[in-house]
Amino acid sequence: MAVLQQELTLSEAADQLARALPGHRVEILQGRLTVTPPPDGSHALSLTKLGRAFDRAGLVEAGYEYVQGVGLWLPTLPADFAIPDFSVVDPDFRDAHVTKNYYAPNVFRMVVEVTSSNWSDDLGPKVECYAQAGIPVYLIADRKHDEVLLYTDPEDGAYAAPRHFKRGQSVPVPESVGVRVELSVDTLLDG
Questions:
Q1: pLDDT digits (tens, 9 = 90+) for 73-129
Q2: Neighbours of 38 (CB within 10 A)
Q3: Rounded to 5, what percent of the chain is helix, strand, coil?
Q4: 100: alpha, beta or left? (left if phi > 0; alpha if psi -120 to 50)
Q5: Would you give the end-to-end CA distance of the chain in angstroms?
Q6: Using the 8-state DSSP alphabet, how is residue 178 labeled?
Q7: pTM score, whole prediction
Q8: What is the spatial distance between Cα 96 and Cα 102, in angstroms, rounded to a whole number?
């Protein structure tokens, strides 16, 4: 019996994996397909508490929104996209739809990643991809190394060295995000 094999594009493979693995995060970073299992409780609680901090700071009243798990189209390679854990976006971000569930980077004011089993993607390719996309603020709650990293203001497609924050400290979110807020490192790391 002959078996027909069809070669899939990277986008088609990502779509198939997303359907086959509900709850997993499927992304294409720098032409590489990545799959991350669902987050653990501490990871999810970190994002919930992050949302509460932005609510207390009056983000919506200042004219912005925050969302979790919304696709970000990346200009690095044609099929590249990421799904940040948490993003602060312009209120009309849905008007910047590019394809599928991905939105143009110009409506993202800040992206946040809380590291999981894919921590090396958050600390490597995503730093490069988000800088090339012009994301003004990239915050990483690096649970692997027990610190928070803050990248800001990319120039020529690259971020300068990040600011490092340790337990017991607070991270001042740049005012360019839309509100003044200080985020507890312990809460970002532990939930």
A1: 999 899 999 999 999 999 999 999 999 889 999 999 999 999 998 899 999 999 999
A2: 12
A3: 30, 30, 40
A4: left
A5: 54
A6: S
A7: 0.94
A8: 9
